[in-house]
């Protein structure tokens, strides 16, 4: 029988994405075996993320400076915006080193089954960005899932009347695949082979 303290830790760890009870138990025992200084460092880094990380006021990526380093730098003047679902997708595209524009993070996709409508996403903020920049192209880099495609089509209908070119990542990404888990070469090919909607 496990102590209440260990059971509580296992329950909390199992609330993390993709962590089941067995994995949470292994993680808990690993943490118990670590020196106290390493556990304190981990706990402090978690608290720092909650205390210091915010959303960029321009692109809505997570950052510890506002605006984020991408929006502050030369890329902030780019006429191309890549729209992604999550900060993890932005990080995956950044790892390719090939995209030199700015981003816009929606923080989700349209999903009627989960009661997520366009109003719950950062879509109005994307449209407002054209007031500040001469946007020539918007790349829609949502996942090739039903919800991702629905979101891309919805955004294309909003953006096209503004005389802005709208493109979609090429189908190098497998249908049902998740952008954050793809390798750099697949993402690079998808960026280079994007198509207009």
Outline the fold blueprint.
Blueprint (H helix, E strand, L loop, with lengths): L3 H10 L7 H13 L2 H17 L1 E2 L6 E2 L5 H4 L7 E5 L2 H10 L5 E4 L17 H7 L7 E5 L4 H14 L5 E4 L15 H9 L2 E2 L1
Helix pairs in contact: 1-2, 5-8
What labels would you give this structure?
197 residues, alpha/beta, Helicase, Ruva Protein, domain 3, Dna Topoisomerase Vi A Subunit, Chain: A, domain 2, five-stranded mixed sheet
Overall number of strands: 7
Write the H/E string, N to C. HHHEEHEHEHEHEHE
Summing up helix and strand content along with how strands pair, one would put the structural category as alpha/beta
Terminal CA distance reads 59 Å
Shape: elongated
Low-confidence stretches: none
* CATH topology value of the largest domain: Dna Topoisomerase Vi A Subunit, Chain: A, domain 2
**Strand numbers in spatial order across the main sheet:** 4-3-5-6-7
Number of helical segments?
8
What share of the residues does DSSP label as strand, in percent? Answer: 5-15%
Radius of gyration: 20 Å
How would you characterize the largest beta sheet? 5 strands, mixed
Name the CATH architecture of the largest domain: 3-Layer(aba) Sandwich
